[in-house]
């Protein structure tokens, strides 16, 4: 069962790749499945608490974890290259440290497509998706626009060595099917369980300089 959520980006977006260092971090062009699911968890816990997720075989946890996420994107992506100062703790003292960051301007709405197993799962997710107002770094704001029961065809696809369609490859994280709530709870000592996938974003480079790169959807 598929449905989609449309969000309008209202600020620059930044979400560093999970393999990046703290000093040098390139940004993904769109929110990862992991960041989207964590945003749903954040809303659910803020409103109703976390107890329901800690129950053994929690169906609500499975509704979020097991949902499959796809994307339909359009328009332009302008990636701004910046050096910012972050505070680094050394020898008990915080010191300013120059670090590379990317911030992405998205010109069009983004359609996030969910594939879930039941109507109950759909209704559960829709209790929280319209409440989400940022993905990635805090302050990377998105505005909910609408739900769609007839979503667009996804145009961001998983990398396939036999498919030579053009685009840019980026590595995205998702919650592992083997994960329990403790593996996504930042306040638990259990290690995170994530799966990685390579996605092909259908954009081409139309202009660039030392300060920015401008991509446009194909």
Account of the 3D structure:
This protein has a single domain (2-217), classed as Alpha-Beta Plaits, CATH 3.30.70. It is built from four helices and eleven strands; from the N terminus they run E-H-H-H-E-E-E-E-H-E-E-E-E-E-E. It has helices spanning 33-48, 51-54, 59-65, 119-126; strands at residues 2-9, 68-72, 76-90, 93-106, 110-115, 142-148, 157-158, 168-175, 194-201, 203-208, 212-217. The strands form three sheets. Strands 2-5-1-6 form a four-stranded antiparallel beta sheet, with no helix packed on it. A four-stranded antiparallel beta sheet has the order 4-3-11-10, with no helix packed on it. It has a three-stranded antiparallel beta sheet with strand order 7-9-8. A hairpin with a 2-residue loop joins strand 3 (76-90) and strand 4.
Summary, kept brief:
The protein is of the alpha+beta class. It is built from four helices and eleven strands, in the order E-H-H-H-E-E-E-E-H-E-E-E-E-E-E.
SSE order: EHHHEEEEHEEEEEE
Q: Based on CA inertia axes, which overall geometry fits? A: globular
At CATH level 2, the architecture is 2-Layer Sandwich
Helix content: 10-25%
- What class, by secondary structure content? alpha+beta
Mean pLDDT: 92
Q: Low-confidence parts lasting 5 or more residues at pLDDT below 50? A: none
CATH class: Alpha Beta
Helices, by number, come to 4
CATH domain topology? Alpha-Beta Plaits
What is the multimeric organization of the chains shown? single chain
Strand count, sense and closure of the main sheet?
4 strands, antiparallel
Using DSSP, what is the number of strands?
11
Q: In angstroms, what separates the terminal alpha carbons?
A: 28 Å
Strand order of the largest sheet: 2-5-1-6
SS strand fraction: 35-45%
């Amino acid at each position: 069962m598929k449905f989609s959520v449309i969000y309008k980006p209202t600020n620059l977006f930044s979400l560093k790749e999970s393999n990046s260092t703290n000093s040098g971090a390139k940004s993904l062009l769109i929110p990862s499945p992991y960041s989207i699911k964590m945003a749903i968890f954040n809303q659910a816990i803020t409103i109703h608490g976390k107890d329901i997720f800690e129950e053994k075989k929690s169906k609500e946890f499975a509704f979020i974890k097991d949902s499959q996420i796809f994307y339909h994107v359009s328009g332009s992506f302008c990636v701004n290259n910046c050096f910012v100062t972050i505070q680094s703790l050394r020898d008990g003292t915080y010191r300013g440290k120059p670090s590379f960051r990317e911030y992405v301007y998205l010109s069009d709405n983004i359609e996030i497509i969910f594939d879930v197993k039941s109507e109950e799962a759909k209704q559960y997710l829709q209790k929280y998706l319209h409440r989400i107002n940022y993905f990635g770094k805090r302050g990377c704001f998105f505005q909910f626009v609408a739900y769609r029961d007839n979503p667009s065809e996804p145009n961001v696809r998983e990398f396939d060595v036999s498919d030579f369609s053009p685009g840019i490859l980026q590595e995205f994280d998702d919650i592992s099917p083997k994960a329990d709530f403790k593996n996504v709870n930042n306040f638990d000592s259990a290690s995170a369980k994530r799966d990685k996938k390579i996605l092909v974003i259908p954009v081409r480079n139309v202009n660039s300089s030392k300060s920015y790169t401008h991509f446009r959807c194909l």
